């Protein structure tokens, strides 16, 4: 394989943008329970997060053997998942029922919340982490296959999708899974699991054949036009019964068009280095884990919403972001153990030899 393994700046910026937008929509839930918020997230930024995870997993697999991939999976996904299930999610469930916690006591109800946190129906935003953990296990045979001659041939065959607008044909499996789920009445969990896995696989293959990413950049205006048309048709289908059939035919491609459009424009305009990128890359995953509990805590101070909803929303957003930054810099970043349980790569401490000199530490199979 001759695929480049260097980090691509636009993927990091795009992942930070996806997590930021998920946070903004999550904060809006405190002021409205409209299904439109969940629909927008599930059709745009959450699919983008899975697409990017598939793209970056290729670089991880090419730079590591099977043992180091397993250790990376433990640090990046399993440890944060355990932190979420046994610490953050029970806290979130306690915050959702303050009256019960006040009546029974925090210690007593926390045990109940811990049992509830292990039920899939209560996983909330941790569903993304759970699915990513399973997907990486499912991708293990694919990672091994990358180093074979057949992978090289497959990479060359993917070049057929590069010319013209053939890249959009990669969205057909999404449509098949979507329509099949509707016709067979499959379980919602099964449908979503397969749908998100296909998005991750598309991201993996787009990075396997770099020409596909170039095609997304070249067709970014076409993706934007198709996306705006799809959004208009879906909105019309939800509002008018006459357009429901058209919306049903367009909706399977909705998430894919969001992903292709944002990726194309990001590759064109965000593929540049900045001194903040390293920090943002470290901060993004802990911020995703912390944002929903912090939003509920801070929004709980405004039960009556006597102020303007916009002012309260801005206050909640800014306060949550500032609180997450403080927690990250004071409690997570300085300590190896907290870095591990929040999926943050440990730093390389300076070595003192008469004067303070930063010496690169040798790579560890566990952390790198």
UniProtKB/TrEMBL annotation:
**What one GO molecular function would you report for this record?**
acyltransferase activity, transferring groups other than amino-acyl groups
What residue ranges are annotated as transmembrane?
A: 12-32, 44-62, 74-93, 125-146, 167-187, 193-212, 224-240, 246-266, 278-299, 311-332
InterPro entries, per database record: Acyl_transf_3_dom (IPR002656), Glucan_succinyl_AcylTrfase (IPR050623)
Residues in the signal sequence: none
Ranges of residues in domain Acyltransferase:
9-326
Per UniProt, which keywords does this protein have?
Answer: Membrane, Transmembrane, Transmembrane helix
Which domain of life does the UniProt lineage start with?
Bacteria
Name by which UniProt lists this protein: Acyltransferase 3 domain-containing protein
């Amino acid at each position: 394989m001759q695929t480049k393994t260097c980090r691509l700046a636009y993927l990091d910026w795009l992942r930070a943008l996806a997590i930021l937008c998920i946070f903004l929509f999550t904060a809006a839930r405190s002021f409205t329970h409209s299904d439109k918020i969940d629909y927008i997230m599930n059709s745009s930024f959450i699919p983008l997060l899975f697409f990017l995870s598939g793209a970056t997993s290729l670089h991880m697999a090419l730079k590591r053997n099977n043992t180091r991939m397993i250790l990376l999976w433990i640090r990046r996904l399993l440890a944060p998942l355990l932190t979420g299930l046994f610490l953050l999610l029970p806290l979130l469930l306690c915050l959702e029922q303050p009256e019960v916690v006040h009546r029974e006591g925090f210690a007593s109800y926390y045990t109940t919340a811990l049992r509830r946190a292990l039920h899939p129906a209560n996983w909330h935003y941790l569903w993304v982490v759970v699915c990513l953990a399973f997907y990486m296990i499912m991708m293990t045979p694919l990672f091994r296959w990358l180093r074979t001659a057949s992978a090289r041939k497959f990479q060359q065959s993917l070049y057929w999708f590069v010319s013209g607008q053939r890249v959009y044909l990669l969205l057909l499996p999404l449509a098949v899974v979507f329509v099949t789920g509707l016709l067979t009445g499959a379980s919602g969990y099964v449908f979503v699991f397969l749908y998100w896995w296909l998005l991750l696989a598309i991201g993996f293959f787009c990075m396997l054949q770099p020409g596909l990413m170039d095609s997304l950049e070249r067709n970014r205006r076409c993706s934007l036009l198709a996306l705006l048309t799809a959004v208009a048709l879906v909105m019309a289908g939800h509002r008018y019964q006459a357009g429901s059939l058209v919306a049903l035919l367009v909706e399977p491609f909705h998430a894919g068009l969001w992903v292709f459009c944002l990726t194309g424009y990001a590759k064109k305009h965000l593929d540049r280095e900045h001194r903040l990128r390293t920090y943002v890359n470290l901060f993004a995953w802990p911020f995703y884990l912390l944002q929903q509990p912090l939003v509920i805590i801070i929004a709980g101070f405004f039960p009556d919403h006597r102020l303007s909803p916009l002012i309260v929303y801005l206050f909640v957003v800014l306060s949550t972001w500032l609180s997450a930054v403080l927690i990250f810099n004071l409690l997570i970043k300085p300590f190896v153990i907290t870095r591990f349980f929040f999926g943050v790569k440990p730093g390389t401490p300076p070595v003192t030899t008469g004067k303070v000199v930063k010496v690169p530490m040798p790579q560890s199979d566990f952390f790198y």
